[in-house]
Specification:
mainly alpha
């Protein structure tokens, strides 16, 4: 089970890095590619979904880290 958790940890870490890099300032990231995340009064729905996905992957990363710790301890 430990090798599977280690592979999942690596995949989650790459996914988390990619998602975090997509969160940039207004001039960079998605905004730099011609996408404007701000609409009339709030955050665009794509930006909100990106934030939700980032939080979900971060939580999975944390849970997997704890499971790996218990497997190795």
């Amino acid at each position: 089970m430990t090798p599977a958790l280690a592979v999942i940890q690596v995949l989650l870490s790459f996914a988390l890095m990619g998602l975090i890099l997509m969160h940039s300032g207004r001039e960079a990231g998605l905004g730099g590619m011609g996408f404007s995340p701000m609409s009339h009064g709030g955050t665009h729905i794509v930006e909100r979904n990106l934030t939700r996905l980032t939080v979900l992957v971060a939580l999975l990363f944390g849970v997997n880290t704890i499971l790996l710790y218990h497997q190795l301890a």
